[in-house]
Amino acid sequence: MHEYRTHTCGALRLGDAGIEARLSGWVHRKRDHGQLLFIDLRDHYGVTQCVIDVSSPLFAAADALRLESVVTVTGKIVARSADTVNPNLPTGEVELVIAELHVQSTAEPLPLPVNSDADYPEDIRLAYRFLDLRRERVHANIVLRSRVIASIRRRMIEQGFTEFQTPILTADSPEGARPYYVPSRLHPGQFYALPQAPQQFKQLLMVAGFDRYFQIAPCFRDEASRADRAPGEFYQLDFEMSFVTQDDVFAAIEPVLHGVFEEFANGRAVSQAPFRRIPFAQSLLRYATDKPDLRNPIAIHDATETFRGSGFRIFAGMIDSDPNVRVRAIPAPGGGNRAFCDRMNSWAQGEGQPGLGYIFFRDGEGAGPVARNLGPERTEALRVELGLNDGDAVFFVAGVPSAFLPFASAARLRIGNELGLGAQDRFEFCWITDFPMYELNEETGKIEFSHNPFSMPQGGLEALETQEPLSINAFQYDIVCNGTELSSGAIRNHRPDIMYKAFAIAGYTKDEVEARFGGMLNAFKYGAPPHGGSAPGIDRIVMLLADEPNLREVVAFPMNQQAQDLLMQAPAPIPAERLKELHIRLDLPPARAPRSQE
């Protein structure tokens, strides 16, 4: 018999009754029934109930076991009586009668419970992450993550992609966030950067002729934490393709995403390919965001002309005074009663807004202050345009769109959730396309890249030379699922002449472009294929599949919101002699200066 186990704690079934078995694992629970002591033994694979009688010479040792101690037990497998079968456990029809007991490791009193998934303070969970990972839900999430990555890798290879690894120690690149820098001991005063993404390397692989590349890529960004963004590091399915159009990129990755989500959806519906495509401008109009949750069927409409010159003087005055003002109407099917409308108005005020104007429809006409001032003719025209009926309502947001879009998006989601519109147990994918190539920095008045500076402008060099910059769209796209952006991507700018012009519009001189992006630019001068790709976030994919609200629940060893690793105590000071080797002198605020380095 094996020294530690003949079976795992998830393997035994009724057909094993009568055999001798040996199990090893952690003491998950203990239940003292007087004459009998029950011990639930847990390992990676499951839980098996073990039992020992009070008459056994081992009873005292078993009774003294602390939870989470590691033990090896040997004994006969017996069938449970019908009234004691646990249908919630795969091993629930049998139990092991303990004849031998060996304690492999004794656990000290626990800083957090392992046999419960109840909420616990995050700082304790992260400081004792090795214990937190033993808990059923978190443990299952990490296993799910591994299975998702294996599925993605298999599906990418089936799609003709080849896996490559790109450097971790590299040069800085403009990815929109702060990089992490690594000092060079051999080159005093010089630094490597950890890659925010393998962007330039994967494009260089296309120039090198590898055609279809992918990797499960680690990326590093020194940015603030959010529920859907981990500080420090994250992983993405990074891929790139040669000789492709935007349609080719979509056709390659949609089967992968649909297949992975369908595989792990646990009965939840998944959008069929091809995924819906929504131009960026249309997404902002209809959903007030470029990350729409399409499980919510509400579509926002522009109602500016309905209110222009109307008797509703608040909106009419705003429209007359500023040509950038717009009025957006948010339909609320089934929300046509004053109680619901007043509740939404109160919610808006709680969000820091002055309120949320509304009309609700009953007895064939609109009701409420907005309807009275707007007048029956305009109110009826609006009702017809929005396809509303008695028992429905419509809410209004007015102002400059760039200012009110976040609130309008939140209002759309709130209305949909309050009214129970749309099925939540599904994954709704869409592509957001046709992003603007440039945007105006309102503080400086300068033209800047709006998304990815390496994207191909729609219309190529001719568009850059003949069109007003803010009117140029790029071959840029995002993949969105249930309101979560999984990735951004683009058809790349592979021509030096177009790149010089694109950067010149954004205020870069030719010398600056060559200094910052010389490696890739030089490569493009020796024959670069048209190419494009994207990089869906692994952490976000698993977060959605696990139905978790926070990325930290699907990452084995995450940092906290302050980008600290509480388990390994990082970041931490380093010895003075290491700083000297690296030719670094610290210049810290006095209150934060480590004592040994003052």
Walkthrough of the structure:
The chain is α+β, with helices and mostly antiparallel strands. Helices cover 30% and strands 24% of the residues. It is built from 18 helices and 24 strands. The strands form six sheets. The chain has an eight-stranded mixed sheet, with helices on both faces. Strands 1-2-3-5-4 form a five-stranded mixed barrel. α14 packs parallel to α15 (496-505). The longest helix has 23 residues, at 136-158. The protein starts with 19 loop residues before the first strand and ends in a 17-residue tail after the last helix. The model has no long low-confidence stretch (mean pLDDT 94).
List keywords for this structure.
five-stranded mixed beta barrel, globular, 30% helix
Write the layout of secondary structure elements.
Blueprint: E1 20-32, E2 36-43, E3 46-53, H1 59-63, E4 70-79, E5 94-105, H2 122-127, H3 129-132, H4 136-158, E6 162-163, E7 181-183, E8 191-193, H5 199-207, E9 212-221, E10 232-242, H6 246-263, E11 269-270, E12 276-279, H7 280-287, E13 301-302, H8 304-307, H9 313-321, E14 326-332, H10 338-350, E15 357-362, E16 365-367, H11 369-374, H12 376-386, E17 393-399, H13 401-418, E18 426-427, E19 429-433, E20 438-440, E21 447-449, H14 460-466, E22 476-481, E23 484-491, H15 496-505, H16 510-524, E24 531-534, H17 538-545, H18 576-581
Parallel strand pairs: 3-5, 6-9, 11-18, 12-19
Antiparallel strand pairs: 1-2, 1-4, 2-3, 4-5, 7-8, 9-10, 10-24, 13-14, 14-17, 15-16, 15-17, 19-22, 20-21, 22-23, 23-24
